[in-house]
Amino acid sequence: MEIGLGHYLSLAAILFGIGFFGALTRRNAVGLLMSIELMFNSVNINLVAFNRYITPSDFTGQVFAVFTIVIAAAEVTVGLAIVLLIYRN
Hints:
85% helix; mainly alpha
């Protein structure tokens, strides 16, 4: 049995759903950031899977996934700084 595009899309949809549910139900900032990271990772799975099955000779999916990872790292940095400022006060 070969793993196809539908399997990757199903996995990404499940991860996005879990992250969305966590973002709606979490009350603390760390849990909310973890849920947002989970949604970002599901988007990365979609980007790489579509790139692999639609245009395998290009690297556009991987490049956009790296940009998404950079944005997620910046988001975590800003969120952690906000949490530390609130804790300090």
